[in-house]
Amino acid sequence: MKITEIDIRVRYSETDQMGVVYHGNYAQYFEMGRVEWLRNLGISYKKLEEEGVMLPVVSLSIEYKKPALYDELLKLRTMFRKCSGVRIEFEYELLNEQGELLTTATSVLVFMNASTRRPIGVPDTVKERLKLL
Asked: Which residues are the active-site residues?
């Protein structure tokens, strides 16, 4: 299972009045991890979109264990789960500077034709890169 790690510094604008990351911001963190995971595999979101392929999130499940706080340096681990049919799935772990697990999540995305907005099979370029795992 290929894992990509990125660091994220919590910005003030991402927190509520208690200095805790607002729950809606986690989806953006996971998108950052997913984009870097794909980039590390040689797949560009931008290039996929230029080729008429979109990847909308159809499912996102998040479990909050501990709060992420303002100015903390977080480590996000993004892990490939599986790719089949029209779907690609990822798992995430978000840790604080002490290595404590703060949040876990899973997401499912669907490959979609940008013009028709209909699901499509996994593009050949993606299939070829996934074989390298």
From this structure: 16
